[in-house]
Amino acid sequence: MNKITQISIGRFHHFHLARQLEKYNLLEAIWTGYPSFKLKDEDGIAVDKIKTFPWFRAPYMALGPWIDYLPALKKQWDWLAFESIDYFVAQNIKSPTTLISLSGTGLYSGKKAKSLGGNFICDRGSSHIVFQDNILKDEYHRWGFKYEGVDNRIIQKELNEYEIADFITVPSQFVKNTFISMGVNEEKVIKIPYGARLERFKKIGNPPSNKFRVLWVGAVSIRKGFIDLLNAFNLLSHPNKELLVIGSVQPEIKQIIKSKNIKNVIFKGNLPNTSLAEYYSKSHVFVLPSIEEGLAIVQGEALSCGCPVISTPNSGAEDLFEDGIEGFIVPIRSSQTIHDKLQFLIDNDLMRKKMSENAILRVKKIEGWDTYGKNMVGFLKSKTYELK
After folding, report:
1. What's the DSSP call for residue 248?
2. Which residue intervals define the domain Glycosyl transferase family in the entry (predicted)?
3. In terms of pTM, does the model score above 0.85?
4. Which of 78, 213, 259, 357 has the fewest CB atoms lying closer than 10 Å?
């Protein structure tokens, strides 16, 4: 079979995939918008196979959270970053390859790969882009904000990618269902759930006995349902509760929480991924009630550290753990249900400890990213031959 060329504007799960492909001697190259100095900890991949095209992404990253206050500039910058890396890789594909590109970065390079006798796989980490745009529009309106929407140029580009791709890989049943609901042939959509980096995430401590700590890790945004968690947390009955928030806070959330009680909420900002195992291990529960995403990797990280998870089907939770065993799967937009599950864990500490044990066992069974690699390689070996 052809060797694999990857494109990912950032890191996401694509470097985990690259490590797996390298193990099977299948990786040709991985192209990324990340600058090389940001990739020094990406071990397991031959240095000469990591190709960087940082001219748009690096300045964007340098602006940090300030870019969120400039939506028009952010939209144009995103578009140029996605377009430029796609064009550049297309020019550098000289022989047959199987291209796996993050959606929005592979239209021209995918066409080039196919023209040379290779294959094109569009890898979509979130729900179908039209479904995504619609549900986020509803969610922003729910909180009284105007939704700028996904750039129409990106929507059209992704729809074209879905059309010409040989296959579309997705991480969860939730995402697959959104593609089917939007009229994409079910056989074209291949579900391969993500894993967790077990060598980095393991239980290294215990939650405090004198307080109940709820943990959040990720962008603090409307999309990820942060206000639903905050409302649930404020309803909790506990003499010493704490909501520990790790991640950058988006402008809309800053505006909303001006009228909210955040007395027991600690905002830590962004922290290195290497430091998170301690926070997962020393929290009673991790909560991520996302309105829409593919399969949030932070859930697997939390489970690996023995931290029970409360999440939604729209976070891909159903492909990672079982409701009532390693945590709870709750409906989107339901502060009351989140509150009820948190209160249950407060009132039933033995059950919470059992869920912690179950979480570690669950992640060991799925073997972290190794299972993801085996499943992806199995798919590639069977389907790419089939396409010839």
Report:
1. P
2. 200-360
3. yes
4. 259
